[in-house]
Amino acid sequence: MPSRRRTLLKVIILGDSGVGKTSLMNQYVNKKFSNQYKATIGADFLTKEVQFEDRLFTLQIWDTAGQERFQSLGVAFYRGADCCVLVYDVNSMKSFDNLNNWREEFLIQASPSDPDNFPFVVLGNKIDVDGGNSRVVSEKKARAWCASKGNIPYFETSAKEGINVEEAFQCIAKNALKSGEEEEIYLPDTIDVGNSSQPRSSGCEC
């Protein structure tokens, strides 16, 4: 029987508590947003299948706790990551200033084989709050920081409104793919549920 090759890509989302990491993941995977804030304990993950060209990929997105008392749990979750997403709240300068700490912490704990070229993506979240009047971190400042760290891709997002979330995660998936540390899963067509038509495209036009 022919088999369809599927590749697992591990993505880690880091950032201060309350910046919207869980909301971004839920908006992307489930197209849902909740106003009920619940702190992540330790780590949690969701998966989503995406397709580029004729290949099927499974994004495994790990949402980690932002509270420092849980950071010691991070080491095991960081290992084997293909891309790291750094999230801050555009209405909180502290969350932006801490991006550097999260990036350094990840590189130390994950120990990627090529730290200088490991793919990061930065998301400035909550651009919808107060019509944008509450923001304290300008897009220019954020882009300058990303440029200084090797031209990290940058997106301004609203998990609540779904603004730029799909586009950001398409970029994240592509960068994870480029890192090359892929784990291949072979799925025989015989276990497909439903019809055996070709999987739908994720709509990535990059």
Question: How do the strands and helices of this protein lay out in sequence?
Answer:
Elements: E1 3-14, H1 21-30, E2 43-52, E3 55-64, H2 74-78, E4 83-89, H3 93-97, H4 99-110, E5 120-125, H5 139-148, E6 154-156, H6 165-178, E7 183-188
Parallel strand pairs: 1-3, 1-4, 4-5, 5-6
Antiparallel strand pairs: 1-7, 2-3
Helix/sheet category: alpha/beta
**What pattern of helices and strands is seen along the backbone?**
EHEEHEHHEHEHE
The helix content is: 25-40%
Assign the CATH architecture. Answer: 3-Layer(aba) Sandwich
| Average pLDDT figure | 81
Q: What is the CATH T-level topology? A: Rossmann fold
The CATH class, by name, is Alpha Beta
Residue share in β-strands: 25-35%
- How many separate structural domains? 1
Counting DSSP H or I runs of 4 or more residues, the number of helices is 6
Query: Main β-sheet, in a few words?
Result: 7 strands, mixed
Written account of the structure:
- This protein has 206 residues and is α/β, with parallel strands linked by helices.
- It has a single domain (3-34, 42-191), classed as 3-Layer(aba) Sandwich (Rossmann fold).
- It contains six helices and seven strands, in the order E-H-E-E-H-E-H-H-E-H-E-H-E.
- Strands 1, 2, 3, 4, 5, 6 and 7 form a seven-stranded mixed sheet that branches.
- The longest helix is centred in the C-terminal third of the chain and has 14 residues, at 165-178.
- It is globular and about 45 Å long.
- The relative contact order is 0.22.
- It is a lipid-anchor.
- InterPro entries: P-loop_NTPase, Small_GTP-bd, Small_GTPase.
- One of its GO terms (molecular function) is GTP binding.
- This is Ras-related protein Rab7.
